[in-house]
Amino acid sequence: MNAMTPNMPQGHGGPATRQRTASRFPRLPLVLGLGLIGFAFSAVIFGMTTGIGVMQEVSGKPQAIRDIVVAGTHDTEITIFDARTGQVISSLSPTEGGFVRGSLRGLTRIRQVAGTPLDQPYRIIKWESGAVSLSDTATGERIYLNAFGPDHAAAYEQLLASRGNEKP
Questions:
Q1: How far apart are CA 46 and CA 52, in angstroms?
Q2: Which helix (H) or strand (E) holds 132?
Q3: Complete edge-to-edge strand list for the sheet that includes strand 78-82
């Protein structure tokens, strides 16, 4: 021993070294992950080729259609007109028609982002299945209103039911 390495064993000429083993990624998580990815791809291909498990909207044919035009902003009174006749269908103050105002505001925002004209009509459709949808004729967006509950769909169904229905 010398003064620089007091606890080193004699005869090796250097520090004692431990044998290192190569660190490997555990095989089980790797195999399970690859198996999960393979199963997901197989399930998608199976569903696409057989049609099993594919969700489809079966609304049937339109029973009633009405195009509407909205005047006003979200913080003032909005007036809803029949696009064909120009007849006032409804006027909603800022405290009324929260869902109608909110959904129209969302579609208007999509129009602004897309850069499409804001004066194009929206289309309310009642389908054979009883579903009610709101479509934007400018952007092609469609919202199935029954997904938000029967009360919200009924709010638009009232706009559709007032005079001026068009049969397709």
A1: 8
A2: strand 132-136
A3: 88-92, 78-82, 62-71, 122-127, 132-136, 142-144
What lies within 8 Å, CB to CB, of 61 at 6+ separation is 127, 128, 168
Q: Does residue 109 contact residue 126 with C-beta atoms inside 8 Å? A: no
> How far, in Å, CA of 13 to CA of 128, rounded?
91
State if pTM tops 0.70.
no
CA neighbours within 13 Å on the CB side: how many for 109?
7
Q: Are 166 and 84 in contact (CB under 8 A)?
A: yes
| Angle (deg, nearest 10), helices 98-114 and 150-161 | 80
pLDDT per residue, tens digit, the chain (168 aa), is: 555 655 655 555 555 566 777 778 889 999 999 999 999 999 999 988 888 877 666 677 888 888 888 887 767 788 888 888 888 888 888 788 788 888 888 888 888 888 888 888 888 888 888 888 888 888 888 888 888 888 888 888 888 876 544 444
